[in-house]
User: What shape does this take?
Amino acid sequence: MKKAQTIRRKSVIPGFGLSMGVTVAMLSLIVLIPLASVLAYSFHLSWEEFAALMTRPNVVQSFVTSIGCAFVAAVINCVFGTLLAWTLVRYDFPGKRLMDGMIELPFALPTAVAGITLTKMYSDTGVLGRAFEKIGIEIAYTKTGIIVAMVFIGIPFVVRAIQPVLEKLPASYEEAAVMLGASRFRIFRKVIFPEIAPALWTGFGLALARGIGEYGSVIYISGNSEKNGTQVVSYIIMQKLNSGNVDYEGAAAIALVLLILSFLMLFVINVIQHLASRRTNA
Assistant: This one.
C-alpha cells in the first residue's frame, strides 16, 4: 500500500500550486491583461459619450451588418457543414483524406490572403463573379460577399464539431429504425439530429462569434462602403486607430461591446456542452 502511494506521488507533471501559478500567469499575460486594458480605455468615456458613440449611424449599421451577415453565414455553415461531416464519416471515396485535410485550410491560410483571393474570384472580372453577374447577382463589395467570406472562415468549426459525434454514433440505431419502418427523414429527425444537435449548436456559436469579429477576410470583399452598408465592426475599430486623430477610447468602447457579445455566446456554448454531457452520461 505504501509503495503504491509513493509511486502515485512521483508525478512527471508538477503539483497543483505550480501548475496553477503557471496557468494563471500565462492566462494573465495573453488574455486577462489585454482584456483589462480594453475595459480601462473604455472607462475613459462617460456614459453619455459611450451612448453617443454606439448610436452613431455608421456604428449601428456596422453592428447590424456584422451580426446579420455572421448569423446568415453560420446558418449556411450548419447546413453544409453537417453534409460535409456526414460525407467524410459515412462514405469512402478517392481523395477523402485530401478533402478532410482541406477543411482545416481556413485555419492555416492567412485571412488577408483569403480575402484578396475571394475578392478577385467574385468581382465582376473574376471567374465566378462574371458567371453570377450574368444572372444579375453581384457578390464582391456587397453584403453577399461578406457572407461568402464568413462562410469560408466559419465552416471548419461546424464540421469539426459534428464529425466526432457522427463517428461515435452507432449505425445500429439507424438500422433498428429502418427495421421498424421509419422513413429517412424521420430517422434523421428522431435518431441522428438529437445526437448531433449539441455539437451543431456549438459549431454554430463558434462560427457566429468568429464571423462577427472577422477582419482580414472581409475587409477587401466588403468594399467598406457606408452608403451601401458594407462596413463591418472590425473596420470601424481599425478606422479609429488608423485615422489622423487616433481614438483609442472609441475603439476600445466598440471592442468592449464585441467582447461582451463573445462572452455571452461562449457562455451559451458552455451551457449547451454541459447539458449535452449530462444527457450523454445519463
